[in-house]
Specification:
By secondary structure, this protein is mainly alpha-helical. The protein has twelve helices and two strands, in the order αααααββααααααα. This is C6 finger domain protein.
């Protein structure tokens, strides 16, 4: 039996597909927003949603990221949301990645980005940390995460950022198990990175220590979330996003 929530989602999905197929010259902000919202709904309910990203990316690739209008802060925000949702290490089960953040969101100077390295609102992470994450499988190293200088924020935000930073190190260290997507579009293990493990600098902590630190940060976030009921901070966007992303197939 279909749930009541399934009907409005189906109607919205059909409307989005109709607009996407008829919008042959430019991906309007409204259609772009609707597509990202459908991705979020799919994420929360465990339904496939990566194909929506690919559909929107096709139009952006054909007609430009910004289209004929001026570059607006809202448009830049939409592009960043798409980049975050496309990050391959954020979703278990994804076999391909567009590399959207790496290709289109890292160079904030060319985008005339007004916010620099401030926190990206959907993930709750600093943009400089997302830059490194977007390069996993494309040149990022454990040392890049280890040497990340951080960004100004609250104590709770730093708990979240440290958990992601350390998890990024493990994603590289065990890339051959995580099947990190490569630029060719195929899944290959991080063989070269695994071979370099023997020459890894001694300053890098062991896997056991990294896991213990990640669990410690997550426990601190859980207690903070319980005490505040998740109100009043962007940090819980990243906490809840990570909780929903991992284990979902797309």
């Amino acid at each position: 039996m279909c749930s009541a929530a399934g009907f409005p989602h189906a109607n919205s999905l059909n409307l989005f597909r109709t607009e996407l197929s008829s919008n042959v010259t430019y991906l309007e902000d409204g259609t772009f927003t609707a597509g990202l919202l459908l991705c979020s709904i799919g994420l929360m309910h465990g339904m496939p949603w990566s194909m929506h990203l690919h559909g929107m990316f096709g139009l952006l690739q054909a007609h430009g990221l910004y289209g004929p209008g001026e570059r607006t802060e809202f448009r830049t925000h939409l592009l960043e949301v798409m980049g975050v949702m496309d990050l391959p290490t954020f979703t278990v089960g994804r076999s391909t990645s567009l590399g959207f953040w790496r290709q289109h969101c890292c160079n904030r100077a060319s985008l005339q980005h007004p916010l620099g390295d401030e926190v990206e609102v959907v993930s709750g992470l600093p943009r400089s940390l997302l830059d490194i994450m977007s390069c996993i499988g494309h040149g990022a190293t454990e040392e890049d995460f280890w040497n990340w200088p951080g960004s100004p924020g609250s104590l709770t935000q730093h708990q979240l950022w440290e958990a992601y930073r350390l998890a990024g190190m493990l994603a590289i260290r065990y890339g051959h198990l995580l099947l990190v997507p490569q630029s060719s579009g195929t899944l290959t293990g991080s063989t070269a990175q695994a071979n370099e493990a023997s020459s890894r600098p001694l300053i890098l902590p062991s896997t056991t220590v990294i896991i213990s630190r990640i669990v410690s940060h997550l426990d601190a976030l859980r207690r903070a979330f319980t005490e505040t009921e998740g109100v009043g901070s962007l940090v819980f966007n990243g906490y809840c996003l990570g909780d929903r992303r991992y284990g979902r197939r797309v």
